[in-house]
């Protein structure tokens, strides 16, 4: 098991080059994303940028790692990565 620290509010999940290279060269089959902001006082766009965009970045990172299979949520919802990313200005 490998743990890497990042920052969901930063581009690229705040992963260092070293950690990103470690993830790309490891045989990873399961990824947990357990970060979120639960403040209900932030503006909606800021909340989306700290809660929605990091999920998209985690999915994109997983797709780049050869051994990881990305599955849609149990609801069958489409992640709509392009549309949501453009809405968030990324």
Brief rundown of the structure:
This protein has 90 residues and is an all-alpha fold.
Q: What layout of secondary structure does this protein have?
A:
Blueprint: H1 17-25, H2 44-51, H3 53-64, H4 81-87
List keywords for this structure.
90 residues, elongated, 4 helices, mainly alpha, 40% helix
Structural domains: how many: 1
What's the overall average pLDDT, rounded? 75
Which structural class do you get from the secondary structure elements?
mainly alpha
Gross morphology: elongated
What level of helicity do the residues show? Answer: 40-55%
CA-atom Rg in angstroms: 14 Å
- Give the tally of β-strands: 0
Task: Describe it.
With 90 residues, the chain is an all-alpha fold. It has one domain. It is built from four helices and no strands. The termini are far apart.
């Amino acid at each position: 098991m490998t743990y890497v620290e990042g920052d969901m509010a930063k581009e690229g999940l705040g992963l260092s080059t070293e950690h990103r290279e470690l993830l790309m060269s490891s045989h990873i089959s399961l990824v947990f994303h357990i970060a979120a902001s639960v403040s209900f006082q932030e503006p909606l766009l800021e909340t989306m940028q700290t809660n929605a965009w990091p999920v998209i970045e985690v999915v994109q990172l997983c797709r780049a790692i050869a051994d990881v299979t990305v599955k849609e949520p149990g609801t069958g919802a489409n992640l709509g990565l392009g549309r949501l990313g453009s809405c968030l200005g990324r």
